[in-house]
Amino acid sequence: VIMGNCTSSSNESNQRTEHAVRHERQWSDRVPNQKNRRALQSMARVGSRVFRQSSMELDINAAGIPHENGGQPKQGTLKEHKASTYEHVHQIVEEGIDNCHETKYADGENSSRNISGKVGLSNLGNTCFMNSSLQCLSNTIPLTDYFLGYDFRGEINYDNFLGTKGQMVSSYAELTKHLWLGSDSSYQPTGFKSNLGEFAPQFQGYEQHDSQELLALLLDGIHEDLNRVESRPYIEDNDCDGSNDEGDAITAWSHYLQRNRSIIVDLFQGQLRNTMTCRNRQPDGTFGCGHVNVKFDPFMYLSLPISDKCNTLDDCLDLFCEEELLAGDEQWYCPKCKAHVDATKKIDLFMLPPILIIHLKRFSFSTWGQKSKIDRSIRYPLSDWNLSKKKQSQSGCNPLYDLYAVSHHKGNVSSGHYTAHAKNRFDGEWYNFNDSQVHRIDPAREQLGSGSSAYCLFYNRVERVPQANGRHVEKKTIIRRQSISRPELWPHLQRAKAAEWKSVLSNDFV
Questions:
Q1: Phi/psi zone of residue 396: left (φ > 0), alpha (ψ -120 to 50 degrees), beta?
Q2: What is the C-alpha separation between 180 and 186, in angstroms, rounded?
Q3: Closest Cα partner for 212 from 108, 139, 134?
Q4: Higher model confidence: residue 107 or residue 126?
């Protein structure tokens, strides 16, 4: 969707020619200067295998049981295991970034300033929409850790005709390195822009576009490039009637994983319950033949409507979940009546992902195709957004979320500008990203948490993890690697972890 022209307040040129961009790519992407080269090549990478003691040996050592010869508890033999989470990746990236900056600033230059994650992106000409989305994704820490510290190239699916044979993810990984391991205050994403245009021709050139449209396409492209499924089987959807939602949802998720498994599924994808109910007028004057059809559909983000009655994010979510009547041209085919009939449609949140992206539908089209923007101010929580009353499934982790990034749009459909706010992983401070300009902000002074400019909201689910001493707890976002062979890691079955995972707000098991 073309959004008119960017009204960036920066001094960057919006009139770059194709020749100039190609020239910049040659020097900024392909030939990094000597100062950056060491930093951009210094991060170690790990795979999905980890080494640890067996659970039995750990239990024996924890109990203080002496060695069979009367000595100290044995250390045990490290055995190779398939990692169930990406925690080992997170640890190596945290250490790697620290070591990178210790080496980079050993001469004292900028030694007091860690710019990781605080690097701006140059506006190449109406590309503020792209910069805004990229900064939000860059501050999605599990995704950034994956591209900085994981052997992602080992998961590239070169045979997937829906992907780019790794070009898209390689380009995004290179951009991520510059934002977190580089030493310059801003970066020109010309190489990424070029590869994006090859994958999605609608983003070629320098027209203003929609940041959410770019976000959705990029995540889908990354998923297809990294889909761990080599051959997708044909699986027919089950016809569910609502009598066994928990079991049917698990079956639907297992079917989905047989066709789709990637870091994007692990991070961003949840499940909606879609309920269709026949409302066909019967001979006795009543409505509905009694047929109910329930499907469980995956989602990667939630696009929430805004009405005149919406004041908060919860209001928008309630509107999204409202039952609607399908009639006229929107009638539904009822398999029992064997005809297109009036029906009700109800969408509910059933299972929520570790990273929840909310898209506020601020742009709308009239019946004659004219586009307009909804500038209504919406309040949204900065932390502890509890969705337990919104989620219909009783299984899974406690759905408690903290905000970490926002994509903003200011202006109208013909002339506007995108920026972003994001919380830095190291200092915990909020920063404003306005193309190449980055500066720290005071969330209260910026009125973060309300306003008419918030367009896409990024939340991470927080879980309470007990520490070794049994007394202290830590807020963490746990990413469980989804696979067919490890159903205990599926989001629906996390209640089995009740003794380990606790609510952040209370001591109740989840």
A1: left
A2: 11
A3: 134
A4: 126
Cβ atoms of residues 126 and 6 within 8 Å: yes
Among 37-41, 142-146, 307-311, the least confident range: 37-41
3-state secondary structure of 44: coil
Q: Which long-range contacts (CB under 8 A, 24 or more apart) does 227-236 make?
A: 227/157, 227/160, 227/163, 227/260, 227/261, 227/262, 228/155, 228/157, 228/261, 228/262, 229/157, 229/258, 229/259, 229/260, 229/261, 230/157, 230/159, 232/258, 232/259, 233/258, 233/259, 235/259
Distance separating alpha carbons of residues 11 and 125, to the nearest angstrom: 11
Q: Given pLDDT bands bounded at 50, 70 and 90, which one contains residue 190?
A: very high
Least confident window among 10-19, 427-436, 473-482: 10-19
The reply to whether 178 belongs to the active site is: no
Give the span between the Cα atoms of 227 and 260, in whole angstroms.
6
**CA–CA gap between residue 72 and residue 64 (Å, rounded):** 8
- Residues 6 or more apart in contact with residue 292 via CB below 8 angstroms: 241, 242, 275, 276, 277, 278
The H or E element that residue 325 is part of is: strand 324-326
466 burial via Cβ count (<10 Å: 0-12, 13-18, 19+): middle
- C-alpha 155/C-alpha 164 separation (Å) is 13
Among candidate residues 128, 136, 334, 397, the one labeled active-site is 128
SS3 351: strand
* CB contact at 8 A, 246 and 492: yes
Q: Single out the catalytic residue among 88, 359, 408, 417.
A: 417
98, amino acid identity: D
Residue with tokens 């109800």: 346
Residue environment code for 302-336, b if the CB has 16+ CB neighbours within 10 A, otherwise e: bebebeeebeebbbbbeebbeeeebeeeeebebee
State the Cα–Cα distance between residues 118 and 434, nearest whole angstrom.
11
In the numeric block, which tokens belong to residue 88? 């080992």
How many angstroms separate the CA atoms of 155 and 340, rounded? 44
Q: Is 23 a catalytic site residue?
A: no
| Cα–Cα distance for residue pair 54/17, rounded to 1 Å | 60
- Between 396 and 435, residue with greater pLDDT: 435
Distance of alpha carbon 354 from alpha carbon 256, whole angstroms: 17
Pairing of strands 415-423, 5-6: parallel
% the chain with pLDDT above 90: 62
